[in-house]
Amino acid sequence: HMDMLPVFFLFFLYAVLPFRYLYHPAKKRPMSDNKTDFTEIDNLLFSKRINKPAIERIANKCIANEATTRHLFLLTRSEDVTIAWHSLWVCNVMADKNPQSVKPYRKEWEQQLLGCKNSGIKRMLLNILIEIYDNDHLSVEILNLCFRDITSATLPPAVTVGAMKLALLMSQPYPELMNELNLLMNELEEHPLTPAIKCTLRKIRKRI
Fold first, then answer.
1. What is the DSSP letter of 79?
2. How far apart are CA 198 and CA 204, in angstroms?
């Protein structure tokens, strides 16, 4: 019987042991190690509440990976307002840290802005477009939208401020547009203004 022990040991080593690992595979690596696994990001963005540190972590991960950025962009167009707003918040942080990481999606966001009815989403889109703006880019449709929103009495102050800032960036290379913006500032001053709008108006006046 002692002579059979090496035989049984070899049988166990080469036949039984690999079978054990076949039916009991190793645990999966953490999701954060897999750059193409979006589950971790989705769990955060799909939650009802999310804090700024979490937004920063997602932004840093997306900046480092183009596929993750593409996934994030698709979420910014979600019909769920909370998911879209959280995703745009991440993109806003990315635009501030590294504008080139989200600049390829500018045209899509401009089209989204033109049809946007939600003031929170509109504010985020304006902020992103401000961050990634190029001096050689002028969208007449977006500029007209900004001009309309500047004097709208129904929009939140944050949207008005965003429209004012983007309109200034787009108008600066063109004296005739700056004259039109100046007329809008005159019209705006005839109405009661919040501190944020007053501050932005003063800054624009210095640039006209």
1. S
2. 10
